[in-house]
Amino acid sequence: MSVRKVLMVLHRVCWIVFVVMAVVGVFAERLYPFWATFVPAAAAIAIALHLSRSAVASRAREPRRRPAVEVGPPVAGRWTALNSPADKVPSHGTHVYGQAYAIDIVAEPEGEDAPVRPPFRWVWPVVRRNRDFPAFGAPLFAVADATVVHASHGQRDHLSRNSGLALGYLMLLEASVRDMFGASRIVGNHVVLDLGDGVFALYAHLQRGSLQVKTGDTVRAGQQLARCGNSGNSTEPHVHFQLMDDPDLDVARGIPFTWRGIGVPANGDVFSAGEPVGPA
What is the rounded average pLDDT for all residues in the chain? Predict the structure, then answer.
């Protein structure tokens, strides 16, 4: 186990201990000094700062950025890009969990009878059902011939967080709690593919119970893997896709990608992906 992995685990443990001590302190006075409650929190912050400095130093030592890996698109149909590495790196504001070059995409089907993606609202409705979003249940495909190294789909698909009130809840409370319990609670149901040459692909926020593959399976490019969901640290049903250099999200570093025939769509760009060539 690497030093970074140990520190990531210790960071989470410190936050959990802090929460437990804070709760216990409310009901059991004088069990320990008040100031002791904040010792694990201070330790967690110190570990986070150390990990951040180490990551910056590690990237500074890299001779050059790894070239983009070309793969097929993970979806079919018409989609819009959000949080794209074409606009900034790290695309999600952090290098943690190998998501420096990650991208989020939401379905934007066209046609007179096509469903419309609900807009963001500040107050009402506070939440929406997943089936209100056209991305929910959309099939996801293997971007290359690969081996499945992780596949899980047991977490629930929660209601949307695409209102001001729900987003505040997500950012101020839910995301922090999820982070304390590890990367799997952040990415939700997910699949990791080994593409070879030290490149791994992550599909996050999958629909519960939608997996069509399991760990150890060999898949072909274009083969359906699962369906888009809204599990994990997600505001609405969408696809979170990234390439990385390790299947362990605690130690992985992001790798740039480009989708064959599409490139890397920028924030707000609408793109269309054809039906995949390969087994359904």
Answer: 89
